Amino acid sequence: MSETTILIVDDEPTVLASMSQILSPFYRVRAANSGQRALDISLTEPRPQLILLDVTMPGLDGYTVLSRLKQNPLTQDIPVIFVTAMEAMSNEEKGLNLGAVDYISKPAISAILLARVKNHLVLKQASDFLHDKNVYLEAEVSRRMAENQTIQAISIRALAHLAETRDPETGDHILRTQSYVQALARQLQKHPRFNEMLSDQFIELMTRSAPLHDIGKVGIPDHVLLKPGKLNDEEWQIMKTHAQLGAQAIERAEKDVQQDVEFLALAKEIAHWHHERWDGSGYPDSLVGDEIPLSARLMAVADVFDALISQRIYKSAMSFEEARTIISNESGQQFDPDITDAFLTCFDAFVKIARKYQGGTVSAGTGDSDQTSSKTTIT
Q1: Are 123 and 191 within one domain?
Q2: pLDDT per residue over 331-356, tens digit each?
Q3: Are strands 80-85 and 5-9 parallel, antiparallel or unpaired?
Q4: 106 phi and psi, to 5 degrees?
Q5: How many domains does the chain have?
Q6: Which of 23, 150, 186, 346 minimizes the number of CB atoms within 10 Å of its CB?
Q7: Gap between the Cα atoms of 342 and 80, Å rounded
Q8: How far is Cα 282 from Cα 53, in angstroms, rounded to an integer?
Q9: Strand order in 80-85's β-sheet?
Q10: Residue 157 maps to a domain
């Protein structure tokens, strides 16, 4: 006998006995003489793979039983065949609309009953197989995506650390600036000026891209990058090329993969323009205001805050409060005013991040920055 279980539901004992006699040589048969009993049995082991359900019964009729089966996640996928007298066949459409898979008329003819039952069990098995296969494939796709994202994150971090190895004072700068950028973006997510762009996906991609902002430093000569003191004007011009060098390196990577990769596009924006200033006096392209990509404007605040609270050979670390004052005073000059306001609102979060990732060059906080320019100590 098959381990497949079929539930027969009918208030007439003779019908239950007749159908059970036909089916029991081939299937495990369970019987219920009322709608409520059918609902109870459908939730107990062995659970039915198919239900043969009488339409006209006292108490809960077949339509009500079917509706309740479909409402319960545990029973909604069990196929139901209505069994009814010929004179009631006019209600066939109603039953099919409620979710019945078929109708069989009373009295059941053995060959027809067995054929219909077999066909619907085969369909149920195929449906279950496809469902299980889809669940497996979805899980596998999710696993592969998570694996790819992990590999991507590790690769980004490795490249960022490669840039940091050429600048021994950087400490945990990439971790801090990455977290600062995320905090700023979350703060601005409901701002009417930014809410359309700052979707969860955009913030995730931007956060992932942020560690590459100084990747161009690998192209700066040691005598400039590692100079134990402030740079002269000629050296400063060389240092400023790191923004363009970083953007060019990422652009070459984009061409190598021969398709658009959104996080690389954001990484290129950040690397290229995070030293632009709101008033147009930044580098390398002297962009003004909203000409500067949002990702770069966010990184500008994060990078400067980290620079100010970091100790360098050529400067001492400032306190968090001093850094806050300087950034506040630069609103509308170096920084987007709305982003500055967001920074002031989530200042405590910045302090918490700085303390979490304290490196060895820390006083009040930690950080990394280019050498200072002749125009301002904020870079």
Answers
A1: no
A2: 999 999 999 999 999 999 999 999 99
A3: unpaired
A4: -95, 150
A5: 2
A6: 150
A7: 59
A8: 77
A9: 28-32, 5-9, 50-54, 80-85, 102-106
A10: no
Q: What pTM, to 2 d.p., does this model score? A: 0.60
Dist. CA 160–CA 162, nearest whole Å: 5
Distance (Å, whole) CA 29 – CA 17: 11
Residue 264 scores a pLDDT above 90: no
Both 103 and 176 in a single domain? no
The domain in which residue 12 lies consists of 5-135
More confident position, 340 or 377: 340
Residue 300 one-letter amino acid: A
CA–CA distances in Å: residue 49 to residues 80, 95, 294: 9, 19, 57
For residue 337, say if its preceding peptide bond is cis, omega within 30 degrees of 0: no
Angle at 214 between CA 213 and CA 219, to 5 degrees: 135
**Same domain? 64 vs 103:** yes
Q: How far apart are the C-alpha atoms of 52 and 15, rounded to whole Å?
A: 11
Q: Over the stretch 293-332, which tens digit does the pLDDT of each residue have?
A: 999 999 999 999 999 998 877 788 899 999 999 999 999 9
The residue written with tokens 């805050």 in the block is: 305
